[in-house]
Design a protein that fits this description.
This protein has 252 residues and is mainly α. 68% of the residues lie in helices and 0% in strands. Helix 1 packs across helix 2 and helix 11 runs antiparallel to helix 12. The longest helix has 34 residues.
Length: 252
């Protein structure tokens, strides 16, 4: 979208003059004359260029390490956007650099490929990163990777993490990971206690490991919830019931 179109959308300016008597072309011409605005654009452009140079500089040794093991990429994000499984030799390189990197952009592109690992891997590097003073969005990504790839060695940690009040949005994915990693008798009480704050994610988790008691809990907490949560609860109840019925029919 070109700048003129952005202005039209932003200020609701069409080819006709707006209520101030200005067209998109008029606003664009005024901005081109606005010294403060132009200086701000130049500064922002300079910042973006500096960030890109910094990113390339930080990525260079990582890309070099990947090349040594036969993985040739031009930019680090190629691994993140690939749909291919991430083999163990690449995982080892990623974990090495996650442990020593500090740039949030670089870290995100190092973490995301772990979602598609071919083999189990040690999750302690992810734990260390999660507990750093990083942005909550990166924590959410780490949680998503944990629930998708299920690294080993983090069972005790994840139980403590989902109880930690300092973690907010990132806890959504940890609750999904919890039912996959912890034993059901440990996970279910924690999930129930987190329901009011994270109803959709808890409901999804309970649908996988819940039983008759969890059906009763979901039914008793359904009516006071908004439509998306109610729909999720209905699906979860049906899923649990089908699993219970299947277990009964499969008994010898």
């Amino acid at each position: 979208m070109n700048f003129k179109k952005i202005l039209q959308n932003l200020f609701n300016i069409d080819t006709e003059k707006d209520r101030r008597g200005l067209t998109a072309n008029d606003v664009l011409k005024n901005l081109e004359k606005d010294v403060v605005y132009q200086n701000r654009r130049k500064l922002r452009s300079k910042q973006i260029n500096e960030m890109e140079r910094n990113y390339k500089e930080l990525s260079r040794p990582i890309i070099k390490d990947l090349k040594i093991i036969g993985t040739k990429i031009k930019r680090l994000e190629e691994l993140s956007y690939s749909e291919k499984p991430t083999p163990a030799n690449i995982v080892n390189v990623l974990l090495k650099w996650i442990s020593i990197s500090n740039d949030l952009t670089v870290l995100e592109f190092l973490v995301r490929p772990l979602m598609r690992t071919e083999e189990p891997y040690d999750g302690n590097v992810l734990i260390e990163l999660f507990e750093r003073p990083i942005h909550e969005n990166l924590r959410w990504i780490i949680g998503d990777v944990i629930q998708a790839s299920r690294p080993y060695g983090i069972d005790d940690w994840i139980i403590k993490a989902v109880k930690n009040p300092k973690y907010k949005k990132s806890k959504e994915m940890l609750l999904i990971a919890l039912y996959k990693i912890a034993r059901a008798q440990e996970a279910i009480p924690i999930l129930i206690s987190s329901f009011d704050q994270y109803p959709i994610h808890v409901t999804e988790a309970l649908s996988e490991i819940g039983g008759k008691q969890e059906i009763a809990f979901l039914k008793s907490n359904r009516d006071n919830k908004k439509k998306p949560v109610k729909e999720k609860i209905d699906i979860a109840i049906e899923k649990i019931q089908q699993r219970i019925e299947k277990q009964i029919t499969e008994r010898p």
